[in-house]
Amino acid sequence: MLACLAALPGCNKAEGADPKTATEEKKDKPADAVPVEAAKASHRAVAASYSGTTTLEPRAESQVIAKTSGVALAVLVEEGQEVRAGQPLVRLDADRAQLAVAQTDAQVRKLENSYQRALKLVDQQMISANDVDQLRYDLEDTRAQNRLARLELSYTTVVAPISGVVASRSIKPGNFVQINTPIIRIVDRSRLEATLNVPERELATLRAGQPVTLLADALPGKGFTGKVDRVAPVVDAGSGTFRVVCAFSGDTQLQAGMFGRLRIEYDHRADALVIPRAALLDDGDPAVYLVRGGKAVRTAVEPGYIDGAWVEIRKGLKAGDAVVTAGKVALRDGSAVTVIDAPPSSPGKAVAMASPQR
What we know:
Layout: H1 2-15, H2 19-28, E1 34-40, E2 42-65, E3 70-75, E4 82-83, E5 88-92, H3 95-123, H4 129-154, E6 157-159, E7 164-169, E8 176-177, E9 182-199, E10 211-216, E11 223-231, E12 241-249, E13 259-276, E14 287-292, E15 295-300, E16 302-307, E17 310-315, E18 322-326, E19 337-340
Parallel strand pairs: 1-19
Antiparallel strand pairs: 1-18, 2-9, 2-13, 3-5, 3-8, 4-7, 5-6, 7-9, 9-12, 10-11, 10-13, 11-12, 13-17, 14-15, 16-17
Helix pairs in contact: 3-4
């Protein structure tokens, strides 16, 4: 036992004899390279655009109301039917209005005869000029009442104020209609409009006539083209935005009320230096990790337009420079890196909505 106890200190010394040496060797050993994915800066076309979401609206819409009261004798249109401006929609009971017209017609004829006789008598000085004037005023008043009665009679036939399609109707034959009651809704779908409230910083970039692309959620995989129809010349002080109205043809599958994603393209660069958008660092000023000599070098850049998955680089890089696109989180300036193969990115134009980088 004494012999064993004497041997133990030697064994412990042998096992832990070089902790300092092991630490020094660990310090001298180079750090493992961080595996990353990289892409080269290249030239391609990019477009500057503003993107937004909105709901499509018809060019014109009318809520048809009854201008007089009466029983609906006939409803001449159905939902989904195309109508023209001035086309009869509903016929109301017109008996009372017709009697009013007949009554005023008789009064007009009576006063016309009296007035003509008075004109002959005044030449013979058998009637005063004041009486003649009174007859003329009464005749004009009765004629106005007759025109009013005919107007009320015309209201018994409800006509379409605009051309379009019947979107809804809330009346059936035999219903009693109160005056000013909405009975039919007509929408003009020959042209659809989409209104965007755009931040005031874009006021100088958007103007009428610029092309617009629309993607509707209800029609996946299909794109529709239109144009900017009008731009409000003033900015709303409360929201700091201005209105931009885009127009689309109603001959397509688009329908009023659809939710859409719009992209207004206002500038285009045919040969811009670009890198994948994923290469940009999001920890401060615009920068990327440039792969140089097996190390990641943090490099400041000046980005330009962002077009989908691509970002234009105006300063800081040149064509052929490799930038890190995946694995940036584990990197520091000067970190050793190993570039691994990455799936090839499509050089074609991005489908995603683009927005300008300010």
